[in-house]
Amino acid sequence: MVRTWLSASLLAASVLLATPALAQPADAPADGVLVAPETPAPTEQAADAEVAPADAPAAPPIAVAPPAPIAAPGAVAMLPPPPPPGPAYAGSDDANSGRAWMMPTALSSKAGTWSFTDYELVLMGASYALTDDFSISAGTMVPIAEDQPLIGTLNAKVRIVHTARTHVALQAGLLFAADGDGGDDAAMAGNAGAVATFCGDDVCSSHASVYVGTVIAQVGDAEKEALLVASGEVTARLGASVKGVVELDLGRSRDGSVETGVLAWYGLRFHSAQIGVDVGFAKPINPDTDGEFPIGVPWVNFQYRGLR
């Protein structure tokens, strides 16, 4: 039994010595007591280092500018968009809106607008809008022949009623004509009247006008002659840049010494906001001359309007 106990003790001791977790380190002391390693003493440099007091002010921060933005390769600078066009007004779509064929309408251009007009290549004129409602114009005949008459005109128009669809204006003018051969048969005429224009829309693409006025004329030393004049016109929009224009003019002397004369105009208008071209015919309505002008006399007007 003693052997059995001794054999068990030796077996247990051999197992304990063979286990690494229970084995003592190689540098362990002989008495079996483990001692913690000594902490090295601080060096003189570390001992002499100055320690900032707790209440010392902090160093101010250093401002650093952000980096400049770098444009992407191939980037194109974008320009601001152009200003929107000005608002449309009555007659803004048609450079010839201030007249039909010869009679005026009550429409007017914006202040600062000027226009150049040509009738049949020989009658030329220019106009200028001093305000949105007042314009002046002048015209003459181009000297193309040696003895042709000298002609000059001066006109003014002021709009006194301006609503969305109705416009009323007063018009006055002077005409001077003289013989080109130096004769004494000079003629002068003055006219004045009122015109009303009724529009089909706010831009007045289609409209109708009525004019009533008087003309006082004198030729040489003859007595002055007074005429009553009435005109009407209809302008109808047929397409984006095409209109049909019809005008009818009537004239009669006040005392009845001159028979009533009737002159009809008809044709097409090709237009934009700056350019207008009228192509048509002027037809005298007179039984004595109907055979000579079955469809009328060809007539062409051109106008350029310089917008602001």
Structural features, described:
With 308 residues, the protein is mainly β. It has a domain at 114-306: monomeric porin ompg (Porin, Beta Barrel). It has 2 helices and 12 strands; from the N terminus they run ααββββββββββββ. Strands 1-2-3-4-5-6-7-8-9-10-11-12 form a 12-stranded antiparallel barrel. The N and C termini lie far apart (134 Å). The model is unreliable at 1-26, 28-36 and 44-49 (pLDDT under 50).
Using brief descriptors, characterize the structure shown:
single chain, 308 residues, mainly beta, Porin, 12-stranded antiparallel beta barrel, 12 strands, disordered N terminus
SSE layout and pairings?
Elements: H1 2-18, H2 44-48, E1 114-119, E2 123-129, E3 134-141, E4 150-162, E5 166-178, E6 187-199, E7 207-219, E8 225-237, E9 242-253, E10 261-271, E11 275-284, E12 297-306
Antiparallel strand pairs: 1-2, 1-12, 2-3, 3-4, 4-5, 5-6, 6-7, 7-8, 8-9, 9-10, 10-11, 11-12
Please provide a brief summary of the model.
This protein has helices at 2-18, 44-48, and strands at residues 114-119, 123-129, 134-141, 150-162, 166-178, 187-199, 207-219, 225-237, 242-253, 261-271, 275-284, 297-306.
Counted by DSSP, the helix tally is 2
Counting DSSP E segments of at least 2 residues, the number of strands comes to: 12
Round the mean pLDDT to the nearest integer and report it.
Answer: 80
Q: So, the CATH homologous superfamily of one domain?
A: monomeric porin ompg
Assembly type: single chain
Beta-strand percent range: 35-45%
Please state how the strands of the largest beta sheet are arranged side by side.
Answer: 1-2-3-4-5-6-7-8-9-10-11-12
Distance between the termini: 134 Å
Rounded Rg: 52 Å
Helix content: under 10%
Q: Which fold does the CATH topology of one domain refer to?
A: Porin
Molecular shape = elongated
- The first-level CATH class name of one domain: Mainly Beta
* Estimated structural class: mainly beta
Going by CATH, the architecture of one domain would be Beta Barrel
Biggest sheet descriptor: 12 strands, antiparallel, barrel
* H and E string: HHEEEEEEEEEEEE
Q: Flag low-confidence runs.
A: 1-26, 28-36, 44-49
